[in-house]
Amino acid sequence: MDFEKLTRNEVLRVQRYIPGKPVEELQRERGLAEVVKLASNENPYGPGQGVLKVLEEGIGHLNRYPDDSAYYLHRNLARYLEVSERRIFIGNGSVEILYFLATLFVEQGDNLVYAMPSFVIYDIVSKLSLGEGIVVPTDDEFRHDLGRMREAVNERTKLVFICNPNNPTGTYNSESELREFMESIPENVLVVVDEAYYEYVQAPDYPQTIEWLDRYPNLILLRTFSKIHSLAGLRIGYSISHPELVGLLERVRPPFNVNSLSQMAADASLKEIDHLRMVARENSLGRNYITKKLTNLGCRVLPSQTNFVMAFLPLDAKVAYEKLLDMGVIVRPMGNFGTDMNAIRISIGLEEENNRLVHAVEDLLKNNN
Ligand SMILES: Cc1ncc(COP(=O)(O)O)c(C=O)c1O
What does the CA dihedral 154, 158, 162, 168 come to, rounded to 10 degrees? Predict the structure, then answer.
């Protein structure tokens, strides 16, 4: 049986997504007891206490289907964001919404414009779609080159993906840059701004795009509960957009795409203001610490607005990745992002995890000389 022959060409273009290495896998493979995973931009603190409490209660109702309309979460998220409920669409992770957008809009001959290196799912979604991806390299500082992305947009462009701040580089585009880009883009080109790391950003000139939604009906914002809210395992994210787009997304969404525990946990997490502030504060301390230490060790670390940093070590990144694995530290090699950049991406962990990473890099560089 030749299944490939039966398979759509678009699917054959796709290389499967490689997630960060799971802790148990490394423990098994290399017989290591103590492993630190700083590879998937997860939140090491976990969700707030109020979230854990509602999850305990929710477990008693798993025989029932979830509320398909996610009524309470819609209502409370709208209040939290100060937008109309009609603008919100909730997905099984924000990534699900990227797949829906390509399904909804991209026809044969259309194209999708996105940056490289950026979040790999844009490339996967684009290849799976009926259209073609137009890839625009990031600029010298590894930021989205919005001028070149604008030039790449043509009359067959349906979707533009902008990751702000960008994964895996941690860099961001300012309010004035993104504003200029939006002003220059025709209304029939949909611009998706993926703000998965929104709550970690500290830069004062980072765009507050929610305020732009009235002016740009073609603007779609993506946010997630996987990062600062620490609910990556429950898979829940959302978009904020023109209400008409929400109606269309509803047509392609499988029923009950967001499970009941996710809805309850996300709703409860919106009230965990102090906890979320603590996570952002600790993340920023950890990020400064890793950046400073690695810079002192002779690495180039890109300035980051997220819960990870991209670091260029003075040795081959693949070798560094493997050696760090031997020392029980999992990071993410940049090869996973479809580039040959000689860098690794390091997620910010707990204080002791960050220490462990810094010492491992120190040992690595010592032994390399
Ligand atoms: C830019 C970006 N968007 C989306 C996601 C994933 O979001 P979700 O877990 O909501 O699907 C990630 C996760 O790493 C990300 O880096």
Answer: -100
183 burial class (0-12, 13-18, 19+ CB within 10 angstroms)?
Answer: exposed
For ligand 1, the distance from its centroid to the CA atom of residue 279, given in whole angstroms, is: 18
How do residues 271-295 score in pLDDT, each as one tens digit? 999 999 999 999 999 999 999 999 9
The structure tokens 């611009």 sit at: 191
Q: Report the separation in Å between the CA atom of 94 and the middle of ligand 1, taken as the mean of its atom positions.
A: 6
Identify the residue whose C-alpha is closest to ligand 1 atom 16: 167
| Domain hosting residue 255, numbered range | 49-269
CA of 3 to the centre of ligand 1 (A): 31
Do 199 and 136 share a structural domain?
Answer: yes
**Spatial contact of 331 and 21, defined as CB atoms under 8 Å apart:** no
Same domain, 131 and 263: yes
- 354 Cα–ligand 1 center, Å: 22
- In this predicted model, what pLDDT tens digit does every residue of 117-136 receive, in sequence order? 999 999 999 999 999 999 99
* Same domain membership, residue 169 and residue 291: no
Ligand 1 pocket mutation pick from 17, 77, 94 by most atoms within 8 angstroms of CB: 94
Q: Looking at the structure, do residues 278 and 251 belong to the same domain, yes or no?
A: no
Q: Please list every protein residue whose CB sits less than 6 Å from any atom of ligand 1.
A: 41, 93-95, 119, 163, 167, 194, 196, 224, 226, 232, 237
Q: pTM above the 0.90 mark?
A: yes
Residue finishing a domain among 208, 241, 269: 269
Closest CA to 94 of 235, 231, 261: 235
